[in-house]
Specification:
The chain is mainly beta. It is built from one helix and 40 strands.
């Protein structure tokens, strides 16, 4: 046995020496030879100052029969570069004597880390990877779009906890690292990057104006606390952005990258107009209402690409108009524990494509389950939908479609649909103008274009009396009669 192992080891060592020891005269020395790359330029989109980017991989090809010897691979700007490279495992500033066998390739991994400066608008940082071989140099350009930002980092790492029910049905706690927002001195000129939970504290109001941008790291959340308020006033041409901090192509529309906006129980008079909330776990969570005013009024907003839920209402009072809620891994709207809800002229369109969705787009319930055996009635006082589309690519439980009534008998369950286009078996076709089971014919649902085509059954099927905003989400004037949903149908 020992003799066999020795023979195998000797054979492996011999094979390794044959593949790794190439004679100098065997290398390609043609001065016209060129390397080929998998990309023309390594580009990073929207890199916030002081934050490292994702790592991009580049393949470097030798397309010739002979092996090539790269004397050095380095960065043009050397140690002052804002980029870092890893050449087939070598993380030094200079990788020397890099061999590429004939018709073979190597990987180079690239990161960017941008220094802050005084600019408020985006700026470009450039460099090049330099390949020195055959007494010449070849360059691969690098570029990153840098942005300065205001950072909110946790300053209270173990001070606040949240009660929740764990997988065993027991009450448990979760420590939340958080920072407190200085609302009075909020910088309206730069984007804000939030790490951990950023709290709008009691009796404070966070005002956000047109064009402002908030970006969130993994697990981050904007938490509007008890007696606090958020007031968002964007515009059609300059909406307020709530999104993930990563913007490279793969991450630009990837769900689940941050936690979401949390309007805690006791928060009050929250208002969102012309905002985009994207790429979180839950877009916006609205907890129990505490007075006669809506917990949240939301108009002209887009809420999309969330790994769980677009709008989560928990005994809340929400009034919404001209909304697009789209493409979430569970529900677009989960309105649980009773409450009051009014949604007009909105499109709930769920064409989730990451895995198999198991929950309808719209869920309504009138109880709270403390445990599986302890259930408290919570009356659904009002759930009123007018001129709304609820549609998607889910057949529902027992083919019931995109709406789920999760109800108990001993609590109010007041639900109304008027002039809505619905994928469901729970609502009758034609009653109060409803259209049931007919495809709304979106222009391109899987590319998030939810404009109905001109022959859509939603076109001119709405009720003008429900129009409170005279234009749709694209800024087009509402028809007479209007199209059902957040967008007017195409004219041509």
């Amino acid at each position: 046995m020992k003799r066999l192992i020795t023979t195998i080891l000797v054979s492996l060592l011999a094979a390794m020496s044959l593949t790794s020891c190439i004679k100098e005269e065997d290398y390609l020395v043609d001065s016209s030879a060129r390397l080929h790359f998998s990309v023309d330029t390594v580009s990073f989109d929207t890199v916030f100052a002081t934050m490292a980017t994702v790592t991009q991989a580049v393949k470097v090809y030798n397309t010739y029969d002979e092996p090539m010897l790269i004397d050095a691979v380095t960065l043009l700007h050397g140690t002052s570069s804002r980029f870092r490279i890893n050449v087939d495992g070598d993380t030094g500033f200079v990788a020397r004597n890099v061999e590429i066998a004939g018709h073979d390739s190597i990987f180079i991994f690239v990161q960017a880390n941008i220094n802050p400066n005084d600019q408020t608008s985006p700026y470009i940082v450039t460099d090049s990877i330099v390949f020195s071989f055959n007494r010449k140099q070849q360059f691969l350009p690098l570029q990153a779009y840098g942005r300065n930002a205001v950072y909110h980092l946790p300053t209270h790492p173990r001070q606040v906890y949240q009660l929740y029910i764990n997988s065993l049905g027991q009450i448990d706690t979760m420590w939340i690292p958080f920072s407190i927002i200085d609302c009075a001195n909020w910088d309206h000129t730069r984007p804000h990057v939030i790490i951990g939970y950023a709290v709008v504290n009691s009796n404070e109001t966070l005002h956000l104006n047109a064009g402002e941008e908030l970006y969130f790291g993994a697990g981050a959340c904007l938490w509007v606390y008890d007696s606090a308020t958020i007031d968002v006033r964007g515009s059609q041409t300059a909406p307020v952005i709530f999104s993930s901090v990563r913007h490279d192509s793969y991450y630009d529309s990837l769900p689940g990258q941050w936690q979401g906006i949390w309007l805690s129980a006791g928060s009050k008079n929250n208002y969102l107009e012309w905002a985009r909330i994207e790429n979180a776990v839950t877009g916006i969570q609205v907890d129990t209402n505490v007075n006669s005013n809506p917990t949240l009024e939301i108009r002209n907003c887009v809420i999309q690409n969330h790994s769980m839920i677009g709008i989560l209402g928990q005994g809340a009072y929400i009034v919404g108009d001209n909304l697009l809620v789209a493409c979430c891994g569970q529900s677009l709207m989960d309105l649980r524990y009773g409450g009051r809800y009014r949604f007009y002229n909105s499109s709930l369109a769920n064409y989730w494509r990451y895995d198999s969705r198991k929950t309808p787009s719209l869920v309504l319930s009138n109880y709270y389950a403390y445990t599986t055996s302890t259930i408290f009635p919570r009356p659904l006082q009002e759930a009123d939908f007018r001129n709304c589309i609820v549609y998607g690519n889910f057949n529902g439980r027992d083919n019931s479609g995109e709406i789920m009534f999760d109800r108990i008998d001993n609590a109010d369950f007041n639900v109304t649909f008027r002039n809505c286009l619905l994928r469901t078996t729970l609502v009758a076709d034609g009653v109060s103008g409803n259209i049931v089971g007919r495809d709304p014919k979106f222009k391109d649902a899987y590319k998030h274009d939810f404009t109905p085509l001109k022959d859509s059954p939603a076109a001119n099927a709405g009720e003008g009396a429900y129009i409170t905003i005279p234009y749709d989400l694209n800024g087009n004037p509402r028809g007479n009669p209007p199209t059902i949903g957040a967008f007017e149908a195409e004219n041509e």
